[in-house]
Structure prediction request, 141 residues.
Amino acid sequence: MDFYILPGDSDRERALFACRLAEKAYQQGHRLFLRVADAAEASRLDELLWTFRQGSFLPHARMEAADGEPILIGTEAGEQTPRDVLVNLAQNLPAHWSEHERVAEVVNQSPEVLQGSRARFRAYREHGSEPHTHRMDQRGA
Prediction:
C-alpha cells in the first residue's frame, strides 16, 4: 500500500505519474488495473498511455475492450480482471482493493484529491493495512 504524494495540483501530472508507474510495473512483469473515476477520465488516460513517452509501448485496453492486455483501465476492478497491481486515481475506496498484491494511490495537492486520499488512507488502516507515504519531487516515479 503506497501513497505517492506529488508536489503540484495538476491532474495531467497526476495522470503522467500513473503512466510512469504503469510502465515501471509492466517492465517488472506485473499486470495492472488503472482505476479511474469515470469514462471521460478512462479515455484521457487511454490516450495518454499511447503518447506520454516517445518510443514507449504499453499494451493496454479499456475494460470494455479488453482482450488479455496486461494493463487495464476502468472504473472498478472485478473478479473477472485479476491484477496484481492496482493504481487508484478515483476518489473513493476501491471495492476489491484487498485482492491486489499492491495498491498505489497517486495524490496531488488539489483539495478534492487530498481530501479523498486522507479518507482512503484512514480506511486502509481501519482494514488492517499500513500505508506507506512517498513524497515525490519533479523527477517522477
User: Anything to note?
Assistant: The domain at 2-135 is CATH 3.40.50.10110 (Rossmann fold).
